């Protein structure tokens, strides 16, 4: 695996390999098996796999964990290399944002100002801006994003469609620990006791899905009951919602559209998100 920290070196390398199809896996590092599965997926659908590691300040609110976000450079490098990644692009902030990034990608508010966007204002502007920039630098044919960040995947798909970018977006399945907890870089913030309790988020989503499967289910009641159940267990949920997979809008069961249960909740100081598709 070759490693580049500057745009010019990466571009020079890619220019010499114009005939190869490129697959990009953008990450913020602190990699786990879920990321490595995305690398394998990119490898199966492109000649040259480029992983990026960049903790993107633009997508963090001032009170969020930008400074403490785990930076595990040595481990990440080893893991990517073992997973068969060809190129690692890891710019520093001065390289990617040499001047304040005043031109930004403003995603569709119907999709970006709900769910995560409601609780993390401007989050998807930050995500879309850095992803667009990485796409401009790497010029990939394929890009792989995990379904764990379900809304991010949906927003990026619509950005790519609306800007007519010639990039196929592939979705990576969520990897889970043995007890069902979705793998996430933020799981490492959990204490041993919290780690045991953390499975309750996906259990709640599953219970919501079961309840929603009953004919004439009252979706709003299922959602508000779930919020209460989580609060009673000591969690601070932001949202627990049942939405269409396409567009993430409230569901109308009569239309028989595929749906997804999405949740975000804080356990102690750690904010976890998860989703289940149906
Ligand atoms: O999912 C992430 O790790 C980040 O949001 C991404 C896509 C790398 C953009 O910074």
Radius of gyration: 19 Å
Strand order of the largest sheet: 1-4-3-2-5-6
Question: What name is given to the CATH topology of the largest domain?
Answer: Rossmann fold
Work out the count of structural domains. 2
What does it look like?
With 278 residues, the protein is of the alpha/beta class. The chain has two domains: 171 residues, HUPs (Rossmann fold, 3-Layer(aba) Sandwich), CATH 3.40.50.620; 93 residues, Pantoate--beta-alanine Ligase, Chain: A,domain 2, CATH 3.30.1300.10. Helices cover 38% and strands 19% of the residues. The chain contains eleven helices and nine strands. Helix 8 links the parallel strand 5 and strand 6. Helix 10 runs antiparallel to helix 11. It starts with a strand and ends with a strand. The site of pantoate has 10 residues, from strand 2 and helix 7.
Question: What's a quick, concise take on this entry?
Answer:
The protein is α/β, with parallel strands linked by helices. Helix content is 38%, strand content 19%. The chain is built from eleven helices and nine strands.
List the helices and strands and how they pair.
Blueprint: E1 2-4, H1 7-15, E2 22-27, H2 33-45, E3 48-53, H3 73-82, E4 87-89, H4 93-96, H5 109-112, H6 116-119, H7 123-138, E5 142-146, H8 150-162, E6 168-172, H9 192-197, H10 200-212, H11 219-232, E7 236-244, E8 259-267, E9 270-277
Helix pairs in contact: 7-8, 10-11
The chain binds pantoate.
